[in-house]
Amino acid sequence: MRWVTFDCFGTLVDWRHGISTSAELIAPGQGARLLEAYNRHEHAVEAESPGSRYRDVMAEALRRACAEEGVRLNPDDAGVLAATLPYWPVFAEVGGELSALREAGWRLALLTNCDRDLVAETRRRLPVPFDAVVTAEDAGAYKPAHDHFELFRNTYEPETWVHVAQSYFHDMEPAHQLGLARVWINRLGDLPSDRTVVPHIQPDLHNLLAAVETA
Fold first, then answer.
1. H or E element: which one contains 147?
2. DSSP conformational letter for 9
3. Parallel, antiparallel, or unpaired: how do β-strands 181-185 and 160-165 relate?
4. What is the pTM of this model?
5. Interval 87-132: pLDDT, tens
């Protein structure tokens, strides 16, 4: 059994575009500011409430972002990110690159900090089927905790396993700690704090099959 596991949002789905354009719906002209503020708050909310639904995490992180930036948020607008998430765009290269993996005999799985219902809606937009999904609801925790990875390993017992993700903090660091082969999709051009954590780096999913098979 050869498996490639993926984080979903940021890796396969354009998470930054989704958040910024959704924020524009409730605060026109403020999407970019609220995106950066949201990024500063989401992990803290997840760490404070590891058993919370992701839709509630997003709502609270958006409330804190709006408060930080001085943007008025109507109470019933706090759920805008969960409402729009199923429509966030998939990166253009996802279909071809994941199809190449499947054709080469790799099984595909998602390890996501999302809720089951939200990722089910997102899977309708992904151009390639997945063989397994582990959500934060299933794991009872949010990455970078190891629960997603341990649940996947115990459930599917992969013989060969490569983890592919955009987030250095949420995915690459725990995958490194667990000794997993890994490929960092560094879409933002970030500098890693420890180069040994990310031995395989590429800017997007292009030529992913070759990277996975040499990871």
1. helix 147-156
2. B
3. parallel
4. 0.96
5. 999 999 999 999 999 999 999 999 999 999 999 999 999 999 999 9
